[in-house]
Amino acid sequence: MNILYLDTSQNILTAGVLKGGENFSRTVDAGTSGHTRILLGEIDATLAAAGLDITDIDAVAAVVGPGSFTGIRIGAATAAALSRGTGAKKIAVTEFELIAYDRGKITAAVEAGRGNLYCAECEDGRVKDTFFLPAEEREGAGEREFVFEPLPKRGEAFAAVASSKAARGEFADVFEPFYMRKSQAERTKDEI
Predict the structure, then answer these.
(1) Per-residue pLDDT tens over the stretch 5-22
(2) What phi, psi does 183 have (nearest 5°)?
(3) Which candidate among 60, 83, 88, 124 keeps its CA 20 to 30 Å from the CA of 175?
(4) Residue 23 · residue 180 · CB < 8 Å
(5) CATH number of the domain at 2-95+151-191, please?
(6) 165-174 long-range contacts, Cβ below 8 Å, gap at least 24?
(7) CA dihedral in degrees (132, 134, 138, 140; nearest 10)?
(8) Domain layout of the chain by residue ranges
(9) pLDDT given for residue 43 in this prediction
(10) Could you give the CA distance from residue 5 to residue 18 in angstroms, rounded to a whole number?
């Protein structure tokens, strides 16, 4: 199965193709606003490196969160459009699943801005529970050690998680963004 995978949830953009057992992955620092500008070019370059055309893709995987609200929307919309245009199946992956891949019991964490964290209790690569940890409570988190990055590398972890989900038939109907809280604009609006 040929799987195209995209991660625009963080400043580092990842685009890759799993072609059979061979992984072609690219990572680029997109900064805080470069995903839209470079994503399609990175997808084209990755497909070219794999010797594939977009019509050769059987499934599209995308990180649906948590992370940058705008980045998640860009990745989900692009993955949905590619899936719809090609008939490829959809594989939704969370940032927590990438961090937890090939690890035992951990607390996966994603920066949520201003010292806040999105967190998940994970075991053997599976997310057991998620929670939002405000900055003021972070110091009181005790001896808890947070894990922020996947092992061995983001592209390798993503390819493995997407491939495992495909093998288990865990396909999504839609790429629904996984926001753990409302955006700043929504929180401000609610206060008015």
Answers:
(1) 999 999 999 999 999 889
(2) -65, 165
(3) 124
(4) no
(5) 3.30.420.40
(6) 165/61, 165/91, 165/93, 166/1, 166/3, 166/59, 166/89, 166/91, 170/91, 171/59, 171/89, 171/90, 171/91, 172/90, 172/91, 172/92, 173/90, 174/80, 174/90
(7) -100
(8) 2-95+151-191
(9) 97
(10) 8
Q: How far is CA 89 from CA 68, 84, 155, 161, in A?
A: 24, 9, 20, 15
Q: What percent of the chain has pLDDT over 90?
A: 76
100-122 mean pLDDT: 95
Mean pLDDT of 26-36: 86
| Token pair 């891949």: residue | 101
pLDDT for residue 142 is more than 70: no
Residue 182 has pLDDT above 90, yes or no: no
